[in-house]
Automatic annotation (TrEMBL):
The lineage of its organism: Bacteria, Pseudomonadati, Bdellovibrionota, Bdellovibrionia, Bdellovibrionales. This is GST N-terminal domain-containing protein. GO terms for biological process: glutathione metabolic process; L-phenylalanine catabolic process. InterPro entries: Glutathione_S-Trfase_N (IPR004045), Thioredoxin-like_sf (IPR036249). Residues 1-81 form the GST N-terminal domain. CDD domains: GST_N_1 (cd03043). One of its GO terms (molecular function) is glutathione transferase activity.
Length: 82
C-alpha cells in the first residue's frame, strides 16, 4: 500500500490520511510531493489520475480524497475499528 501526500504541514487533508494509517498500524509506503515546486502537478499526476492528493494506491486500486481513503481503510480493515 502506498500513500502519496503533500507536506503534512501544508496539507491537512494529507495529514488526515497519513495519521489514520499510522495510528492504526497499517503498513504503507509514504511518498511526499512538495507542494511549492514548479513540478508539483506533474509529480502528482504520476500517481493520481485525478491530479489530487492525498492518494492511496493499493494494488490496482487508486483512491483520492482523504475521506474516501478513510472509508476504504475502514472497509478493508474492520478489525481496526476505525
Amino acid at each position: 500500500m502506498k500513500l502519496i501526500i503533500g507536506d503534512k504541514n501544508l496539507s491537512t487533508w494529507s495529514w488526515r490520511a497519513w495519521l489514520a494509517l499510522h495510528s492504526f498500524n497499517i503498513p504503507f509506503v509514504e511518498t511526499v510531493v512538495l507542494l511549492d515546486k514548479p513540478s508539483t502537478q506533474k509529480e502528482i499526476l504520476k500517481h493520481s489520475p485525478s491530479g489530487r492528493i492525498p492518494c492511496l494506491i493499493d494494488g490496482d486500486l487508486t483512491i483520492w480524497d482523504s475521506l474516501a481513503i478513510l472509508e476504504y481503510l475502514n472497509e478493508k480493515y474492520p478489525e481496526k475499528k476505525m
